[in-house]
Amino acid sequence: MAEGDPLLHVSNVRNRLREIVGASTNWRDHQQAMSERLSLSSMLAKSQNDLPAKTMKDSYLEVHLPLGSEPQLREKYLTFHNTKSPLSIVTALVDKIDMRQHVIYPDCDIKFTGHVTWVGKTSIEAKMHMSQYVNGAYTPVLDATFVMVARDPENKRAAFVNPLKPEGPEEEKLFQEGEANKSRRVALSTASLLKVAPTDEERKIVHSLFLNTLDTKTVSFRSRILPPNSVWMEDAKVKGLEICHPQERNIFNRIFGGFLMRKAYELGWANACSFGGCRPSLVAVDDILFQKPVDIGSLLLLSSQVCYTQGNHIQVRVHSEVFDPLTRQHNTTNVFHFTFISDRGNCQITLQSEIFDAVVFVFL
Fold first, then answer.
1. How much is the pLDDT for 122?
2. Spatial separation of the C-alpha atoms in residues 353 and 233, rounded to whole Å
3. Does the CA dihedral 167-13-112-260 come out positive or negative?
4. How far apart are CA 195 and CA 186, in angstroms?
5. Which pLDDT tens digit goes with each residue over 40-65?
6. Which residues contact 164 (CB under 8 A, 6 or more apart)?
7. CB-based contacts of 41: which residues, under 8 Å, 6+ apart?
8. I need a surface site. Which of 59, 128, 162, 223 has the fewest CB within 10 A?
9. SUPFAM superfamilies, from UniProt (predicted)?
10. In what order do the strands lie in the sheet with 299-310?
11. End-to-end CA distance of the chain
């Protein structure tokens, strides 16, 4: 925000986005609004070189959620330029969310700050920080890293974004971290089990899990014993269904990614709570990939699975997919990874399935 500008209230954020994009507030006007945006295609840059470089300060934004000074807002959040832009900026993935405080107070003001830290030709990395006004000062609560992509007015193909010009050592460091993050994401995508075999370390983990469940009396794949203070993985699942109503749409008339994240988090939290026997606290969120948009009216199926435990930490994976009742087809839309911490002892997750036995057999 430019120096001297009034603070941006959280309730005005969506209105400001609509003004920039030129989106309608009426769901039924969506088709007309999209046809109007089609005419903006001529404004798209043919190359990134045609766009002026911008600084990180150009994208800095500060938004306030006054839970302390405006008590009427608390019920909603308790638990929990005058021109149109030809670009459609959509969320590609949430790279990471780190919780720095486990307690968020319902009666203290919250401040969000963020800015662009790295850009490619059509993609943008942005960092967001959340802090809360406690005991006379703002205290960090969480840090998040998002990757956005620029699309054309119809959201059908990629579009170029302005290059970023770091200023000073601190901004140069942030930019280099963005480059490293991109390289890490590429490396992780090529290391998927769908593409390459497990590493030696992963093989050892699976083999150790197998030995811990082996019945030493029979030494048989079919004879398995659940170790003490453990739960079979197949018994650590929770599923849910959401009907996607227009009230949860974004400015492009698709289901808002934040709504999907919230529903996935709530299901993952419920699973971790049931598994650990207490109310867990969120530690981190990793690699939320938005593979496909979710249309209004969709049947959204959510499936959570406790997939790993270490000490009092619980890793939960939530898979979301859209089910088409007419074609009977399922299409994956998102995969979420949540890390929780439990304050009640250590409970281990272990495997019992034919697939697991086959994997161990191959490893052996």
1. 93
2. 9
3. negative
4. 13
5. 788 888 899 999 999 999 999 898 88
6. 53, 54, 55, 56, 116, 118, 119, 175
7. 86, 152, 153, 154
8. 223
9. Thioesterase/thiol ester dehydrase-isomerase
10. 8-9, 61-65, 110-119, 123-134, 137-151, 88-99, 281-290, 329-341, 313-324, 299-310, 237-243
11. 60
